[in-house]
Protein 1
Amino acid sequence: LDTRVTVRSTSDEIGSLAQAINDLAFDLQRVRDSRREFFANISHELRTPITYVEGYAKALKDKMYQSEQEKEQYLDIIYEESVRLSNMIGDLFDLSKMDEGKISLQMEWVDLSEVMEGAIHKSVFRARKKGLDIEYSVQDRLPLAYCDGNRMTQVFINLLDNAIRYTEKGRISVTMWQEEDGIKIAVTDTGMGIPEAELPYIFDRFYRVEKSRSRQYGGTGLGLAIVKNLVELQGGTIFVTSKLEKGTRFELTFPNVAETETRGEDR
Ligand code: ADP
């Protein structure tokens, strides 16, 4: 780093000040590098679907297809890539709001089991299309959690979407229970898993386990970055464990729990 500060001094204080300045400079450089990388990634990620849309639209315009079936395939590609593009723009918009600290959260006491039921309801159709079941179990008398219900829907749908996307056979199971440190939520699948060496990076923006994986499966590479941001903004934590070819498990903890549960009697 060319901004390195060197101090020849016997004084420990000045030495540690120099160290602190060097550390700061190093952090700043890292921020710059990651921002540069982020913009390079955005340009690349946006260009890819646009290239598809452009290419297939032109092919249709020039009647480059051999059959009606082929024409339908081109239209499907254009549609899917447009959806991907629009999802990506939505995700980028969310992330930029989070970066600027401008995301507004409607924090209130929420029954997370109700939120999860809604999210499962929205995902179950996609799961069934792949022949996957979603098992769901929730502990009785789960207390309310202090969070934003709509944002939690987004978090749960993202995790369920990934579980469905990266699982070919078996099942997805969702469990919710309470421990001393808060409410726990686990989303587990029996899918392709993630290599251990890659686990630390999967919450990074645009990070994909295999570059080709996401294209084939239709993701944006931004989902988990958003999930982690949203969970942490609401005071929660998320961690992942996975075994290649066996499956993946995401576990969330929400420590801000109501003292007494208000659901339960009506269960
Ligand atoms: P994507 O839109 O590509 O799914 P995410 O940020 O949601 O992006 O996830 C990042 C990467 O982590 C994915 O591309 C995939 O390789 C891996 N991944 C996420 N969830 C799972 C899962 N349940 N099983 C296996 N791999 C997963």
Protein 2
Amino acid sequence: MSIAHGIRAVGVLGAGQMGTGIALVSALRAKIPVLLHDRSAEQVKKGLSLVDKLLAKDVSKGRLTNEQANEAKDRISVIGPETGIKGFRDVDMVIEAVSENLSLKQSIFSSFAAELRPETILATNTSSISITKIAASAIPNGVNPASDEGKKSASRVVGLHFFNPVPVMKLVELISALQTSEETLERARAFAIASGKEVTVSKDVPGFVSNALLIPFINEGTATREDIDTTLKLGMNHPMGPLQLANSIRGTRDSKYRPSILLERMVDAQWYGRKNGKGFYEYKD
Ligand code: 3HC
């Protein structure tokens, strides 16, 4: 087992597209045990069947042997709802990949601080929420954030931003909160590299590097949806047009990246893109 990155086992919270992808690359590339937890048993079932499907595809394409695929699958265990996040007690790092909701994330990180060992690295896969705000909640109740204990507890929080689809996309953006220690950053970096990713480091600014650069493409509205997407695909070799992509992602809430009126109106109309079938385009699946 590779433990060069000092992470001997990882916990993943959230078995959606992102969490499942993160669990898969951790098991397959970093080759470490993965504990997967989601409050929805249905979501876990879907996640595990996606893992099976992706591993089977790699076997059928000759990239993995049956044995390698089975070993990777066997490294993933599920923590049931009766145990909850207490099941992460023995891992060296947890990666939170739940929906983009600040108060949900704050309550999760506060539970992490209460339930897990003080040296466990606490990573978040957020694409749009301040890591510093999340880190501020990773402090045991009643502890002053400016005390040595408070600073130490928050110093193990880091942003570990994977891209969708995780097994395919080669980048992980690492984000340092104001409180993050150098050691946390380096261990998280080593883990991402062991998981087969290239790493860039961003400051804790709205959108980090990736979405800060992406959002202007989505927001400009200078032509028809097809012409904007075709311009970026054929003129700049983007694999997917930005408006196609916009139908699958969530943006940041910072005023510098205020959504265009059209985007606001689409949300008012409850057209959420791929999520419910209508956005810049229509989706039948
Ligand atoms: N999960 C895992 N693998 C997937 C997948 C998924 N959801 N979707 C596609 N793939 C794999 C396919 O299995 C295939 O693998 P193979 O080479 O082993 O057969 C490979 O990707 C290529 O798939 P296809 O040939 O079917 O289709 P495409 O050529 O259209 O490629 C794509 C699919 C790679 C997803 C391509 O459309 C693409 O690069 N899209 C842009 C993705 C992107 O920009 N992601 C970033 C989103 S922003 C983000 O995540 C940040 C967030 O914070 C907002």
Protein 3
Amino acid sequence: GRRTTVPAVVIGSGYGAATTALRLGSAGVPTLMLEMGRLWDTAGADGSIFCDMLRPDHRSSWFRTRTEAPLASILWLDLVNREVKPYAGVLDRMHFDEMDVYVGRGVGGGSLVNGGMAVTPERDDFARILPGVDPEPMYRRYYPLANRMLGANSPDPAWFEDTDCYAYARLSRRHAERAGFGTTFVPNVYDFDYMRREAAGEVPKSALASEVIYGNDHGKRSLDKSYIPAALGTGNVTLQTLTRVTSFRQEADGTYVLTTERIDELGEVRGTAEIACEHLFLGAGSLGSTELLLRARDTGALPDLPAGLGEKWGPNGNVMLGRANHPWDTTGLVQSGMPALGIDNRHDPDNPVFAEIAPVPAGIETWASLYLAITRNPERGRIEYDAATDSARLRWREAQGQPSIDAAKAVFDRINQANGTAYRHDLFGDTRAFENRFTYHPLGGCVLGDVTDAYGRVRGYRNLYVTDGSLIPGSTGVNPFVTITALAERNAERVLAEDF
Ligand code: FDA
């Protein structure tokens, strides 16, 4: 393959990567962004960029023959998943022995597929999550900056109380309050004014047309509408899509040399190339960045990478569950795909839980209330490099998820008791009420202060950085992307001031 040379490379285009690319570009550093997925800016034959949740097609999934939705069944019926053609689709479910990890694929990473919930942790919690980071500048400067850049906004309260599309959230709020739990509004990067106009029939529908997890055609300020155009607009950042970094090494003069593989949208390999750079930023996500570093260490390319690599991985205590609603408690046919409320039990010392009230945008009355509970499960797993398959393995046992289930159960047992309701046992393929064999929030593997210094510089090597969710040790107590972004802002500022 050919070899090109650039001053800086950013691997990935999720929160950490996009933030870093903007700050490098703004500082005048010519930067190449490499993303294994495609750019999602062109409508297909049906006039849509993305497919919706109810009729998933090839665009939904990263090289699968069948979709793998988080809600496996309704009334045990496999109504949700579809056969699809293998394609560079937007959602990937990475399979490991006892845990699956959902990630976004494409320009914008997880921002393309996620629920858009933009949550800033409480300051006391932050000190627990990242004890090595001074909270003062985070809360004075970097969290507000991240929220502003990401376009976090909140619904008009009067509209929220009235609109059919949040009947499901108001019902869950009522049930939580009856059990003595408080709820809180959660800001979102989906434009709530656009959603209001969707509800009024004034604009094409997206959040109100079952669009979530496989992308949103309208309304959502994913990174390809915020940080990434700003980065490209500096004139110093170039984006190369459908390009996967397979490995990298370091030459005697300190130059990093990446091996990359280019594919087309059907997965055909179009060629390999080497890219050399002086500064290398890993923003490939918790699994992606950790795998690249482990491969570099364990194959001997960068033998001095630290021993803590791969450690302190966690699923952010994620547990999904459903409750059965009474026949008279209907939630309506149209549910906004973007969550807007959370049950806030974070201050309970025994069972701290932040449970997002999740939609079931099935287009039918399901008599189900769905939740994604975020618990503070202290269990941690480990990512390892498996030489035989040249890939990462996630060491996480299903039993390690039990503390998450216990905490969620303590909260939702009380809600069920207060309302005379029960759990749904038909949603996860078998009869379980609590599903935590997957996570939306993979965190850790290259933990700040262990594998890197306090600003994301990888120990043992110069000009090598981690910028994404792998810096955070396994848990944030709330949805993580604002924290990932704010931390990337903070680290980029320091690195640009000192290393360039
Ligand atoms: P992220 O995973 O976003 O980006 C990594 C990028 O690198 C990807 O685009 C990937 O394709 C690319 N890549 C990986 N390896 C590569 C390689 N070798 N070469 C080239 N490119 C490579 N969070 C939240 O705060 N609020 C919410 O509401 C939700 N909801 C939600 C729903 C769903 C369905 C999911 C899957 C996730 C969420 N999340 C969420 C989680 C959130 O999206 C997640 O924490 C962030 O996207 C993680 O950001 P990172 O920067 O770590 O990487």
